[in-house]
Amino acid sequence: xxxxxxxxxxxxxxxxxxxxxxxxxxxxxxxxxxxxxxxxxxxxxxxxxxxxxxxxxxxxxxxxxxxxxxxxxxxxxxxxxx
Length: 82
Prior knowledge:
- By secondary structure, the chain is an alpha+beta fold.
- It is built from 3 helices and 3 strands.
- Helix content is 39%, strand content 16%.
- Strands 1-2-3 form a 3-stranded antiparallel beta sheet, with helices on one face.
- The chain is globular.
């Protein structure tokens, strides 16, 4: 995880977990967006978006950080959905 270029690894781990459990959860991941582009550019709410199987609207979104999440991070995420 500390290797150079491994910043996408946490996203892929969580995506693989959702993919493995998708039928049990009734949820699936939406296609992953470009990793080096800002969420605003891609239109994504976060690094990983979850939807109900058979639908396209995100019901949950995960933003992976390599540092502690701050209040500013939470406020920025809320602004994205408003």
